[in-house]
Amino acid sequence: MADPTTTDEMKVAEKAREKAQEEERQRQRELEMAKDRARKEGMEQEKAKEQARKEGQKEGKSTAEKGSGLKVLVGVILLLIIICLAVLLTLNVTVSNPVTGVSMPFSSKYSVTFPIGQQVTIGNTHITVLTYQNELLSNIDGDQQKLVEGQDRLTSERRAVVTTLGVITLVDTNFQIDLQYQGQRDNLAYFNLIINTSKQVPDFLLRMLLPSSINASPI
User: Do 115 and 207 belong to one domain?
Assistant: First the structure.
């Protein structure tokens, strides 16, 4: 007959062994779960690093593209500035005999002053105004005529060709100048100067015909 005490001790030992085995299995499960979490966290970190790297590359590419685009824009602007300067610096006006039978429906009007006794050249027309016994004498290319206030005097018709860069024609027009005498003071003769042209001409090109000595102002 078995000893009851021994049987109970064996049962207790078996339960202890089973408990220990269960605890070991639980520790193993927890360890596996911890390893799995660590592995997942590691994978997530790697993904985050890869995403950050890709975003960094994308931002770098975007910055490079913006920088490249900005350089192109600056280059285009500089090129346009250079072209504009070249156009302005090479502007040239040639005045010659007019094309006959051409009407001149366009006009631009300026207020000007002619220094008395000094020759002024507009195009290839030479103009001098003189005073004699309280009268004004106008000499245009050797043709002298007295003027009173409000009186007009026309110059001969001419042709003006404005070119740039040596070969590009900007304007080719007949023109004629109408001088309207407005009186004199301080050794200056005042005129309204009207430039009649066969084609519409921008003001800045017309001013190329007018010397700075007559102080032309649009009116």
Answer: yes
Token pair in block for residue 31: 């360890």
Nearest to residue 138, comparing CAs of 150, 122, 126? 126
**Which of 89, 109, 141 is the last residue in one of the domains?**
89
Q: Distance between CA atoms of 60 and 46, rounded to whole angstroms? A: 21
pLDDT in tens, 163-203: 988 888 989 999 999 999 999 888 899 999 999 999 999 99
pTM as predicted: 0.62
If one counts the domains in the chain, the total is: 2
Q: What is the pLDDT of residues 113-155, one digit of tens each?
A: 999 999 999 988 999 999 887 789 999 999 999 999 999 999 9
Closest C-alpha to 91, from 215, 204, 212: 204
Q: In terms of domains, do 146 and 165 share one?
A: yes
Categorise residue 108: left if φ over 0, alpha if ψ from -120 to 50, beta otherwise.
beta
Q: What is the DSSP string of 194-218?
A: EEEESS---HHHHGGGS-GGG--EE
- End-to-end, the C-alpha distance of the chain in Å comes to 141
Report the run of H or E that residue 13 belongs to, with start and end.
helix 4-89
What pairing do the DSSP bridges indicate for beta strands 135-140 and 120-122?
A: unpaired
State which residues form the domain around 202.
Answer: 92-218
The CA-atom distances, in angstroms, between 39 and each of 31, 49, 51, 52, 183 are: 12, 15, 18, 20, 102
- Note whether 42 and 111 are same-domain residues: no
